[in-house]
Design brief:
Helices cover about 80% and strands about 0% of the residues. The chain has helices at about 1-10, 15-25, 30-40, 45-60, 65-75, 85-95, 95-110, 115-130, 135-150, 155-170, 175-190. Helix 2 (about 15-25) runs parallel beside helix 4 (about 45-60). It starts with a helix and ends with a helix.
Length: about 190
């Protein structure tokens, strides 16, 4: 539908962005990238166009291009916090786990009352802690994300946290029995 819209209105940047979002969800990365670039080129500038492009480039493993997009994002929107999440993801992808965690921690400090970003930061800090073998810390961050998502009204927040806890027990501690118990308890608490 969005492809038809931009054929009729080739200067409608939001149409290119929405087409790119659809392509990204379908994992048609090249088409997504092309449409985000068209949205940016058409203007007016919008943070979601840059975020979408950077995220797509990261998913495609195009790190140099992603860094250029983030630099352009920063210069187009000086001081805007939006480029921080893709920057943290790119750092993580490059194996710079501590730098990535520092960016996520900064997001938590700067946007303490922004519940969606708080939950996202907590989940990413949990992943970084797991990667470094800090399992207790990762479980703390998973619980923090669950609490935040519960405050946001997400009904599956506890389920996701418990699933992470079960996976951590089974995978990292080679304790499949405890992981299975956590999984069974979690599923028993969920409404049918």
């Amino acid at each position: 539908a969005f492809e038809s819209l931009v054929e009729l209105q080739p200067d409608f940047s939001a149409g290119y962005n929405n087409a790119a979002n659809n392509y990204r969800w379908q994992r048609e990365w090249e088409k997504a990238e092309r449409n985000y670039k068209r949205a940016i080129a058409n203007g007016p500038a919008n943070t979601v166009y840059f975020s979408g492009l950077a995220t797509t480039e990261i998913a495609r493993g195009k790190r140099d291009e992603a860094w250029k997009t983030l630099a352009s994002f920063d210069s187009t929107f000086p001081g805007n916090p939006a480029p921080k999440a893709p920057r943290a993801n790119l750092l993580f992808m490059e194996g710079k786990t501590d730098s990535s965690a520092a960016v996520w921690s900064g997001i938590l400090r700067e946007r303490a009352n922004d519940l969606p970003n708080h939950a996202l930061a907590a989940l990413n800090l949990a992943a970084a802690a797991r990667l470094r073998g800090r399992l207790a810390e990762s479980l703390k961050w998973d619980a923090d994300a669950a609490l935040t998502n519960t405050q946001r009204g997400l009904k599956q927040a506890t389920l996701v946290s418990d699933a992470e806890r079960a996976m951590t027990r089974a995978w990292f501690l080679d304790d499949r029995r405890a992981g299975a118990v956590v999984r069974a308890e979690t599923l028993a608490r969920q409404p049918a």
